[in-house]
Amino acid sequence: MPTLPPAAPSRRRIRLPHALRALRHRNYRLLFAGQLIAQIGFWMQATAQGWLVLRLTEAPFWLGAIAAAQSLPVLLLSAPAGAFADRVPKRTLLLVTQGTAMATALLLALLIFSHMVQVWHVLLAALLVGIASAFENPARQAFTIELVGREDLMNAIALDSTVLNGARIIGPAAAGALVAATGEGPAFLINGLSVLAVIGGLLMMRLRMFHAPPRRSGWQQLREGFDYIRRDARVRLLLLQITAHCVFGLAYFPLLPYFARNVLGADVQGFGVLASINAAGALIAALMIALIGDRLPRVGLRTVALLSYAILLGAFTLTRSFPLAMALLAGIGWAGIVVLTLTNTLLQMAVPDELRGRVMGVYMLVVMGVSQVSGLLLSSAADVIGDVPLVVGCWALIGWVVQLYLFLMWRGTLREAPRPVTETPA
To answer: Could you tell me the domains of the chain?
Structure first.
């Protein structure tokens, strides 16, 4: 497929509100519109999948196992995938990964409709999606700055979070009602078809001709990325903090269906409501950053969110009140998206263009891989001990202690202004 120079269409300035300024870039608008549709389908499937696994197995272990199967390839492949994303056209890579995600969703839908689905089918599909995600995530993260430039990067990341968390409100609620009425199959079918929106947007983009960097061994490229992380104290601290956040904070999410049904006494629709309210808090955070992100003290706000997240999660494990659980999950969603959005922004603004794919590969390894492996460990411990709220609450307490230690030992490291980097405009 030939590529065209961006010229006037992608550089034309469209008059938009300040909070939507990243949408003045045509190529980013196409990606934004496609993600808006596809993310709703994704979260519909994610909600239906959790309920399907629980229905098939009645075991919290399998909830963590499916999540771990999807994250294990991310854990193993994200770093080399980030190096690969620096060497190939990112649009081509994204088209392949999106096609893989669509095929697995449609195949699972067929198995569910034919009443042949077994838990190992879901496990295998999760593994395939995980392999695709390992290559997609660093490519998509590095692709964003190419579409909007450094000036609009934080706004684009905030808008991406708005799409993701808006979909997390609509998708689980819609899936809860749909699964209650018709079963899990339609949610998988809708997700498979929704991926066409992203594929169409990618094909419609007008991009510069891709120029491959000089050929070097994959090991040499990986070593350059890790050497840079080791030398740069700011990047190293950002990655350490997000690792602790993912290990101790995000690991609870695969167990949310268990909390909904076995702790709070809710049905599948109640589970959808809990997932949606968590996303509503995250959406508020994303909108806040999109609207006034330029005026926020990024480092201070991120520190507050890191330390408050574990407190809110610990309180959630103690409550047996559904309305209070909703309020706490909204707070958890708000703090979580502040941490992720501001960490992503600070990292990308600090890293040189030629290393961005590799550093973001490590970032996505942590966010998409480490958190899910931690979720498997947490699910296994909960299965053995038999008290899921106690295990999750203790895990959250350990996470708070770790974050406090990192803050006290490294405070001041992130106060420096990011060094200028060479921008690669869309």
So the answer is: 7-208+218-415 (1.20.1250.20)
